[in-house]
Amino acid sequence: MLLYNLRLSWKSLLRNPSLALLTVAAIGLGIAVATSFTAIYYLMTADPLPHKSDNIYYVRLDSWNPERPFNDEFPERPPAQVTYLDATAVVKSDIPTHTAASFHSDLFVYPEDKTQHPFEVSVRLCHSGFFPIFELPFAYGGPWDRRADEGPDRVVVIDDATNQRLFGGSDSVGQRIKLGPEYFTISGVLEPWRPVTKYYDVLNASSGSPEQAYIPFLHVRDMEIATDGNTQGWKSGDGEGFAAFLSSESTWVQLWAQIETADQKARYQTFLDAYTEQQRTLDRFQRPTNNWIQPMREWHVEEGAVPPEARSMMVISLLFLAVCSINLIGLLLGKFLARAPEVGVRRALGASRRAIFLQHIVECQLLGMLGGVVGIVLSVGALGGISTMFLDDVTLHLDATMIAIGIALALISGLVAGIYPAWRVCAVAPAIHLKTQ
Amino acid sequence: MLRMRNITKIYRTSLIETHALSRFQFEVEPGEFVSVMGPSGSGKTTFLNIAGLLDTFDEGHYELGGEDVSQLSDVEMSRVRNEKIGFIFQSFNLLPDLDVFDNVDIPLRYRGMPRKERKEAIQSALETVGLSARLRHYPSQLSGGQQQRVAVARALVGKPGLILADEPTGNLDSAMAREIINLLEQINDTGTTIVMVTHDQEMAHRAGRQIFLLDGRVIDIRDEEAKPLFDPDRFMPSMPTPSLA
Fold first, then answer.
1. Cα–Cα distance, B148 to B183 (Å, whole number)
2. Which residue range(s) make up the domain with A285?
C-alpha cells in the first residue's frame, strides 16, 4: 500500500506542479537554514578525539588567594590555569602516559631569504607530550624527542602554511629557521590541520586557527617569551622583571595529561595532593586542598567552548523551520480539501478513514523528502559561504549524521504541515461529494 | 440481502429538523433487481447512502447479507463497503488522473489483493463491460457510455453481492442508457442483487420490482391514491415536511 500511496502522491504533485514547487521550496528553505545552523552547532560540540577524549584530562591546582576563592560564583572551582612554578614541577611526573604544559604566544620569523620580510607567527610553547595527547597530524618528521624538553637543542614544529611560505611545501625537516633571536631546527611539519574548535586551548580564541609554530616549553625562560593569552594572578613574585613574573602566583599555563586507567588517575591525584602539601611548607597553597584532574569534555563545557550564539542560532533556525511548516498547513489544507470528491469515491469503494489519512500523510512525507533534498543542497552552499565569511579557513561540511538529521527534520516538517490537513480530509463525509462530483 | 427496519434519518440544523427517512421499512431478496423511484426530496439519496454505509442513521436496524451493520466502526464499515457493495453513480465518478485499469483497481487495492489476482479480476471485469482494449485510456479519452461501463466494471470487480446504482443512466443519451441497463440486467442474471435509484420510468420498469418513496417512506404502488403521484407527467418535486426542533 505504501508504494501505491507514493504513486498517488507523485501523481498529485504533477497535477499541480507550481503548488508542489512552492511547498518543496518552503520546506527546502527551512531545512537549509535549520540544517546549516544545526551542523555548525554539531561540529562545534562534536568530540574532537572521540576515541580517546575520556583519557585526556585538564589539570587544575588551587594555588589561589587564601582570602577568597578564584571564582566567587563557583567557589569550589580551582583557577582555570596553573602557575609557571607548578606547571614546570608537575609536568615532570611520569605517572600519566603523556603530559604537557602549554601556552600561546607570538614570535617573528626571520627568513634566510633576505628578499622576504620578517613575519609574525603564532607560537605554542609546549612539552613533547602535547603532540601525542592531541594527535596533531604530521606531514614530515614528527614531534621533538622528550630529551629536547630539557634542552639545549632548539627544535620546532611548523604548520603547513609556514612550511609552504618558507620552503615551498617541501620536506623541511632538519632545516633551520630563525624564530625571534634564535635559530631552531625543524623536527616536524604538520599536515594542513584546522579543527573547528582549538580543543587544547579553549581559554584563548577557541574558534581561532591553531598555532603556526610549536617550540619546547623551556624556552619561556631563556627567551623570556611572555604569554599572549589570559593571565590571572593574586600575588607578585620575588625580584624584578620576567623572573619575578615566573615566580609569581599568576596563572597562565595550561596543564594536560593523558591517563589510561583509574589506578593511574588515583596515583596522579595522590601525587598532585602530595605536591601541594609540600608547597604549603613554602607558604603556598594556603587554601584547602582542591586539585582537579578534569576530563577534557567536562572542561570544555565548563568553559563554554561552544559560543552561546551557536546554540541560539540553532534554536532560532529550528523555529524558522517550524514557521515554514506551520505556514504550509493552510496551503495543504486547501489542496487536500479540494480533493474531497476523490476522497468520497475512495471511501465509497472501501477506503477507511485511516487509509485516506495515510495516503495524505505519505504525500506530505514525499513533499518533506523532496524539500529535505533541496534543503541539504542549499545547506551545503550556505555552509561554504559561512565558512568563507566567518570562520577563518574552517571548512564546514555535512557528514552522514547531519544529512540524516536534515532528512529527519524534513520528514518531521512534512508531518507537522500535513497532519491537520490529512485529518480534516479523512473526516470528510463521503456521501456529500459523490452526488456533486 | 438487504433488510431495513424502522430506519429514521433526521437532518438537524440549529433551527430545524428534517426527517429524510421516517420509520423506513425495506427489504431486498438475494438476486433481486429493484428500482427505487420518487420525486426529488423523497429520500432516495438518503436511502442509498445509508444502504451503502456512506451515511449513518438515527434509529432503526439494518442487516446486509445477514450481517448487522447498524453499529459498525469506520474500519468495519469500509470493509463491508469494499467486499459486499458495488457503487455506480450518475456522474460516473471516475478519477481523472488514473487510467481505466487503475480506476477499476481501486476497490481491490483497499482489499489488499495480490497483484496477479488483481490483474486477472480487472481484466475479467473489463471484458464483461467490453472495454478490455481500453486499459490504458484515461476517462477524458472515453465517451460518457464508456465511462459508465468503466464504473460498472469498478463496481463489479470485487464480486460484491449488492450493487447500488444511483441514476446510472441519468447522464447518458437513450442509446447509451439502454446499453447500461442491458449490462445491469446481465449482471443481475449472474445472481448479483441490484438496487437502482432512477427517475426514468422506462429504466425502472426493466427492474424486477419497483418501489416508490415519498416523504421518506415506501409507498405501496397498489394504493390507487398514491398512483397519480408517480405519473411521469405529474412528476412534481415534493419537499419533506419540516418541523421545528
1. 11
2. 62-290
Q: In a mutagenesis test of the A interface, which of B79, B110, B167 is the best target, namely the one with the most A β-carbons within 10 Å?
A: B110
pLDDT at A350 over 70: yes
CA-wise closest residue to B60 among B34, B13, B22 = B22
Residues A80 and A35 in one domain: no
pLDDT per residue as tens digits for the range A35-86: 998 888 888 788 889 999 999 999 999 999 999 999 999 999 999 999 999 9
Q: Which residues of A touch B111 (CB under 8 A)?
A: 350
Q: Which of A110-119, A270-279, B226-235 has the highest mean pLDDT?
A: A270-279
Q: Is position A300 within any domain?
A: no
Query: Are residues A104 and A252 both part of a single domain?
Result: yes
CA distance A19 to chain B (A): 17
What are the cell numbers at A169? 611545501
The answer as to whether A54 is a domain residue is no
- ipTM > 0.85 for the complex: yes
- Residue B12 pairs with which residues in a beta bridge? B17
Number of domains in chain B: 1
Residue A272 CA to residue A277 CA, distance in Å, equals 9
For chain A, what is the domain count? 2
Q: In chain A, which residue's Cα lies nearest the Cα of B114?
A: A1
Report DSSP letters for A166-205, one per residue: HHTTS--TT-EEEETTEEEEEEEEEPS---SS-TT-SSS-
Within 8 A of A434 by CB-CB distance, chain B residues are 54, 87, 89, 93, 166
In this structure, is residue A297 part of a structural domain?
no
Q: What average pLDDT score do residues B8-32 get?
A: 89
For B168, name the nearest residue in chain A, comparing CA atoms only.
A435
- Give me the mean pLDDT over the A385-410 stretch: 81
Take residue B48 and report the three cell numbers written for it.
Answer: 442509498
- Say yes or no: A106 and A146 in one domain: yes
Mean pLDDT of A303-315: 82
Q: What is the domain range of residue B37?
A: 2-244
A226 touches chain B (CB under 8 A): no
Which chain B residues touch A if contact means CB-CB below 8 Å?
Answer: 45, 49, 52, 54-55, 74-75, 78-79, 81-83, 87, 89-91, 93, 95, 97-98, 106-107, 109-112, 154, 158, 166
User: By the CB < 8 Å criterion, does A308 face chain B?
Assistant: no
Q: Could you tell me the CA-to-CA distances from A196 to A199, A200, A202, A217, A402 in Å, in that order?
A: 8, 12, 11, 25, 16
Length of chain B: 245
Hey, are the CB atoms on B87 and A349 less than 8 Å from each other? yes
* Position A131 in a domain: yes
A232: which DSSP letter?
B
Residue B226 pLDDT class (50, 70, 90 cuts): low
Residue A11, chain B, CB below 8 Å: the answer is: yes
Contacts of B158 in chain A (CB under 8 A): 350
What residues of chain A lie within 8 A of the CB of B98, using their CB? 11
CA triple A336-A341-A347, angle to 5 deg: 95
The answer to whether residues A273 and A322 belong to one domain is no
Q: Show which of residues 335-364 on chain A sit within 8 Å of chain B, judged by CB atoms.
A: 341-342, 344-355
The CATH number linked to B95 is 3.40.50.300
pLDDT recorded at residue A414? 92
* CA-atom Rg of chain A in angstroms: 30
